[in-house]
Each structure stands twice: as C-alpha cells, then as structure tokens.
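Collaborator request, handled under Task 6.
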Amino acid sequence: VQLQAYGGGLVQAGGSLRLSCVASGFTRDDYSIAWFRQAPGKEREGVAHIVIRDGATEYADSVKGRFTISRDNAKNTVYLQMNSLKPEDTAVYYCNAVWSTRHYWGQGTLVTVSS
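Structure tokens returned to the collaborator:
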C-alpha cells in the first residue's frame, strides 16, 4: 500500500487550495482515508476523514464549513478542498489510510497560509 499526497503551497489568508492523496495497493474498498496536519511545535491532529466504500465523512470542528473531503474511486484519489484558509491552517498535511486495522501514511505536503 502506498499513499502519495500533493497539492500544498503558499496561499494568502482567505484563499483556497486542493490537496490530493493518491492511493495504491488496496485490493478492496473497505478502507478509509484521513487527512492529518502537524503545525510547528504542535501535535499531529486529524482534520477530515472519509470512508471509501460509502463516502461518509467527518471533520474536525476547526475546519467544518471550510474544508471538504471527497473521493474519486475511479482515480483512487481522495481530495481535501480547503477554502477560507487561515494562517492557523499552516501545517504539513498528511494522508493516512486505515485498512484491516493497519495504518498507512503518505509523505506530507506543506501548506503555508500568509496573513
């Protein structure tokens, strides 16, 4: 199983970015994908989660109404659309998969929001 995350960058406050997480190696769709983030000096925190089979989603309170997680099963890709970005959203964003109780991590992608 491999996860590849990309799409980070520098954006001004109020702007938008879309992150992508491309998954490979799954032989069934009974897994879920989550986006986590880690800001400098802070612990890693969960941001959004999606169940691949049925599309059910969950969000951290800090991003509700601003971020949207979605999936394109044909492309094995999960997206995180981030709108109304704030400086406090600055972090390295990671995608994580849970499959048969095992966790898999992709590399991080840096999101920097300037004020």
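The cover message to the collaborator said: "The mean pLDDT is 96. The radius of gyration is 13 Å. Please let us know whether this matches your experimental observations."
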